[in-house]
Amino acid sequence: MNIQARHVLNSINRPLFFALALITMMVIQTSHAHAQTLDIVVIEGAESDTTQNDIFKSEIKALFEGERNVNFISYPIKAGEGAERAATLLNTASSNSKVDIVLVLDVAANQNLGRSPSFSKPTFLPYVFNARLAGLPLSGDSSGKKHLNYLTFNFDFEKELKTFQSVAPFSNAVLISDPRIEKSITPDMLAEVKAQAKKAGVNLSIQTFSGDANKVTLPANTDAVLYGFFPSASMAQTKALIEAVNARGLVSFSLTGEEYVKLGALATNNPTTDWERLARRTALHMEEVLLGRPASKLPVFFESSNRLMINMATSRQIRVAPSFDILSEALLINELNDTSDRNYTLTEVARIAVQENLSLAAQRLQAESAGQSVNEVRGALLPQIGSSVEYTTRKNDTASVRSGTLAENSTDGSLTLTQSLFSEELWAAFAIEKYSALSERELVNE
Fold first, then answer.
1. Which of 21, 66, 99, 127 has the lowest CB atom count within 10 Å?
2. pLDDT tens across 42-92, in order?
3. How many Å apart are CA 211 and CA 237, to the nearest integer?
4. Phi–psi pair at 259, nearest 5 degrees
5. Strands 267-268, 251-254: parallel, antiparallel or unpaired by DSSP?
6. How many Å apart are CA 287 and CA 281, to the nearest integer?
């Protein structure tokens, strides 16, 4: 083919080439835009405004940022709706061809849906308390069930209670939980929780709270309250409950994290970072599923970290003072800032420290005791007066009584006065006690 012919052919094919290139680019862009959309159904409580769910959504968006446009589709569970409603929502999401993933952020639904016979879409349950007791499938360290991945805590309730008892002792506790969550707990799980409480020396009872603090009645012997999840209550309603418990002067602990401590509960051992780690793990598992790894083979066990948080405003309100060791290790919020304008000199600070120091107070008492010991030893060197009285009764038919030699009844008394002129042992003991007392006084005066 000569140059002129090639030029003519190129002139003829060039418009066709540009048209094909344009179509190809449009197809690629359309395909790319479709791949960037990730539709996630979120089954969650309708009334809940807790921050845990927001943490999960934020972590998922952060992971896929720049790669996928995450679209959350809320499937709400209303107060009073139970396991049947959760199952219906799961079936609806699974039958929707536009849904890529199902994320369950309702605590009760996590326990109930985990026992579903099958899953049509990749389903993630990050709020499972105890997989074994809840009856969820488990194969090694994964679910072993198609399209199912859950995350479960190895929650040691006995250890948790002992940690709370180190903050403030108690023996009769009431666990307040949401009605739907209470129904989702199996009898075996409930028995295990109460058995672990008993090992910690705690008598545990359970009550429900669905938003009205006035309907929560605590037994007269209650000395502690444990807060669970309240997905059916708003933050304002939860705060009202916590304030009512604090008004009774009861110690209270949050099993769900720092959020309720910030509302007024006394303490928690579950930091917010645990929820962030849990949400990040869930997001990573979603990414692995999208990359082709089966959800059934993803790990399900999650190790929580512990960090004690104490609300010092609540501590002052209910007049509970945790030990210095506990306070030095815990994260403290609402600490009291002294706004007094009084200034102390170094001498005054030292004087107050000496007055308040228990060790020095004990030393002063020991010095006083040593002084009394000196007086006791000195007494042995002083004149000693002794006395004795004897009363005797004799049989009147004896020969000595009949003859008058001895009286039938007689009383004898004596009075003695002694003085130690010199005793090496007594003087040595006196010197030892005197110098011992002197050393004790010197220790106090240092």
1. 66
2. 999 876 556 788 999 999 999 999 899 999 999 998 877 888 999 999 999
3. 5
4. -60, -45
5. parallel
6. 10
